[in-house]
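Narrative of activities, Objective 1.

The group set out to show that a structural description can be obtained from nothing but a protein's sequence at a throughput compatible with the screening campaign. Below is one input-output pair from the validation batch, recorded exactly as produced.
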Amino acid sequence: MVQTVNLKKAFGARVLFSEINLKLDSGKRYGLIGANGAGKTTFLKILSGQEE
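Output recorded for this entry:
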């Protein structure tokens, strides 16, 4: 299981995402979609511990 509470990421004044509350259960498949530059890769790096 992976869980986030009030996750926020910004680069300077540009906020990629804020107040993300998410719970992903083990054994299930999830998809992540969004426009180019929306922060998908950054979000996954944060979840995997590669970025703060």
